[in-house]
Amino acid sequence: MKEIKTSVNQKTAAEYLKFFYPRLRNEIDELSVKGNFAGIIQTTINYLRALLKESKINIIAYHIKLMDMIYKNGDNYVKDIIENIFVRSFESFKKHGKISHWKQLYQNMPVSFQVIYTEQRKQDRIFFGK
Questions:
Q1: Could you report the per-residue pLDDT of 63-108, keeping only the tens digit for each?
Q2: 10 Å Cβ neighbour count for 122?
Q3: Among the residues of 4-89, which ranges form H helices?
């Protein structure tokens, strides 16, 4: 994967995501015009959930790595949205997928996302007793 050299804002991130998710291009375009980056991220999550139902774990793992590339190069807004929507969605993947699939996804997940996910779980236990 090629490294992104400049800080990625929500418009640039949307362009990358249109490239990464050709099937979602029209929906991403519509949401981008509205400035709804959170909606774009949710759209990608919904797509990945559909792949999870089809047990396409390697494809999901690949897309998680692509999102990490955007995350690492994102501005603060892009990082916040990815942390608070994309990484938070991993709990749903864990609940709705097979344990073996979750273990495989987690093992292939970029360390940055593993750290964020683990920290979110700790915070949730502290604040919500989950």
A1: 999 999 999 999 999 999 999 999 999 999 999 889 999 999 999 9
A2: 10
A3: 10-20, 25-33, 37-53, 57-73, 76-81
